[in-house]
Amino acid sequence: MSSERDPSRRQIVQGALAASALAAVAHANRGSTGAASPAILSRAMAHELPPLPYADNALDPIISAKTISFHYGKHHKAYVDNLNGLLKDLPELGALSLEDLIKKVAGDTSKAGVFNNAAQIWNHTFYWKSLSPKGGGKPTGKVLDRINASFGDFDKFKEAFATAAKTQFGSGWAWLVANGDKLEVVKTPNAETPLTQGKKCLLTIDVWEHAYYLDFQNKRPDYVTAVIEKLLNWEFAAANLG
Ligand SMILES: [Fe+2]
What we know:
54% of the residues lie in helices and 10% in strands. By secondary structure, the chain is mostly helical. Helix 6 (141-151) packs across helix 7 and helix 7 runs antiparallel to helix 9 (220-231). The longest helix has 23 residues, at 7-29.
């Protein structure tokens, strides 16, 4: 009987091939100069679009399912596809985690495309988790204590966060970060992220126009106010603060 018609032999052969491929990837990942092909390596290490942490209409009416369909389904996905495309020609970067990749290429103008797409993947994944259909309101416990100590009171924090988000010129992000024991509000342009500044990110608001234009048109301040009052995920902030 030929191997083509023998299920048991076919399974054995396929299993051996799979084991061989995994061994090659493991060999390459140990930093060896072994013969793992870049194709195998890039497939093994491809970055993926993380799932949304809620249904696409869960943030409606502040952020509509239509906005999510473009923002997550088109923009966020495009950053993932773009990065995987760029890394095909940079196998030395293919084994790095997303965070390590961002930190490694930050400030390297020859890798600006890699940085922009990698950081935008990370920023967007962090943004989706910064929002919750059960969000908004006021935090409690350690997060509130740190906010009171750092900003004076919760209203002063909200004012600082809203001002950063409203005044970021052009595309970018507003962030609540921990810098040691002190909490700070910062804003970053384009794909820049506090991740490269040694600061611990707690929450973010995306203020690129694609985040709000379908729902709020040019009224960024209305989007920012609604997100702060109704969607900020304080449980996520508490988990990040640790
Ligand atoms: Fe965005």
